[in-house]
């Protein structure tokens, strides 16, 4: 299905640029089958992590990391990439997307199987929605737009630009008579306008640039939205093609929260019901199949990146230039716990350490935003602390 590397769409092939892929099962994983008991480079892989066996040295597993300010059960899903709550709290991936901007056709891309992740938030507090079908992602990336569609988009861009000009002038007049109580609301409003203007300018830049060509065609059809064995490999293959063609440098991908039966051999119970397993052996067996499948998909994707040389973009492989992060805002869905979140980081040119126990000398968990700060710095963002991080995380 995927025989060749996509041809880059623009002149800048991003050879030296870092990429970021954030993968999340929104309900987390069963902790006892995920976290290793030993630490260091030669730690013993647990049943859930077993698919990563051939990638030792390319990833780090962290235990005792979480968001210390989050105690909201399923609400932790929406704070997975922010670590804190608030009206205009930007998520880690969107801060990276702001930095990358429209150097690529899409500052970021978001896709999820089985339902949304609700994890990505812009600096103006707007939730970024995921595509629910990887085939829609294929259309956005590689299917050429018709002449009529291009013309319609150009007209829409012009109309939206005119509306923004009008709104900006109205906001300026309103600003002259605002009181302090209204000033914060006005600033949020103006931030949203600036975000919209940046988006319009980016869309104009790429409006007439042909999409890259690939020898890839989505074959067949899923049985349903829960046909993970069909949809998940396609999702990650398309992300790989998007990276190879430098169509985007920031991605979120994952698996949503629902109580439908996932189409995997051996699974016969609704997903959310399985997460509240009550330590029943049959339920844990089914949950283990799903959790193992998630890591299988990550391992398959990481291996493909490792097998993709940079070629004329430089020495090394795409894995050296791609941070692949697996995690969730749920630590133990059975208890609605947001403590000790599952964390695996692969690639990115880091010196990986196997399994690291991140419990502090005082017995507390390390803030996960410390790792996010390190990832953002690796991406190129000039930042000292992301959303209240207490430091960075050493992977050098």
From TrEMBL:
Pfam families: HXXSHH. InterPro entries: DUF1552. This is DUF1552 domain-containing protein. It comes from Novipirellula rosea. The lineage of its organism: Bacteria, Pseudomonadati, Planctomycetota, Planctomycetia, Pirellulales.
């Amino acid at each position: 299905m995927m025989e060749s590397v996509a041809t880059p769409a623009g002149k800048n092939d991003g050879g030296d640029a870092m990429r970021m892929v954030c993968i999340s099962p929104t309900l987390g994983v069963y902790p006892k089958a995920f976290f290793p008991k030993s630490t260091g480079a030669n730690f013993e892989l647990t049943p859930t992590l077993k698919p990563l066996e051939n990638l030792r040295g390319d990833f780090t597993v962290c235990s005792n990391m979480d968001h210390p300010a989050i105690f909201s059960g399923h609400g932790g899903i929406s704070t997975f990439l922010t670590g804190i709550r608030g009206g205009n709290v930007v998520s880690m991936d969107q801060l990276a997307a702001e930095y990358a901007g429209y150097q690529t056709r899409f500052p970021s891309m978001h896709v999820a199987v089985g339902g949304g992740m609700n994890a990505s938030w812009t600096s103006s507090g707007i939730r970024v929605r995921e595509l629910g079908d990887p085939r829609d992602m294929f259309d956005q990336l590689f299917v050429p737009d018709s002449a009529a569609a291009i013309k319609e988009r150009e007209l829409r861009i012009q109309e939206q630009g005119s509306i923004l000009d009008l709104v900006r002038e109205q906001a300026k007049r309103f600003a002259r008579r605002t009181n302090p109580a209204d000033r914060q609301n006005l600033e949020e409003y103006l931030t949203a306008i600036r975000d919209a203007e940046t988006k319009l300018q980016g869309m104009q830049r790429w409006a007439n640039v042909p999409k890259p060509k690939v020898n890839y065609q989505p074959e067949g059809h899923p049985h349903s939205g829960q046909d993970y064995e069909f949809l998940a490999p396609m999702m990650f293959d398309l992300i790989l093609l998007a990276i190879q063609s430098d169509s985007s440098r920031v991605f979120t991908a994952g698996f949503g929260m629902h109580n439908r039966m996932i189409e995997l051999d051996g699974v016969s119970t609704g997903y959310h019901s399985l997460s509240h397993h009550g330590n029943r052996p049959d339920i844990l067996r089914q949950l283990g199949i799903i959790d193992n499948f998630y890591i299988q998909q990550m391992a398959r994707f990481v291996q493909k990146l490792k097998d993709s040389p940079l070629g004329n973009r430089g020495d090394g492989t795409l894995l050296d230039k791609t941070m692949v992060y697996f995690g969730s805002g749920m630590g133990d869905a059975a208890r609605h716990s947001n403590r000790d979140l599952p964390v695996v980081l692969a690639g990115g040119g880091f010196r990986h350490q196997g399994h690291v126990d991140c419990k502090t000398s005082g017995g507390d968990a390390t803030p996960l935003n410390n790792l996010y700060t390190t990832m953002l710095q690796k991406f190129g963002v000039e930042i000292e602390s992301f959303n209240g991080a207490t430091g960075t995380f050493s992977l050098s």
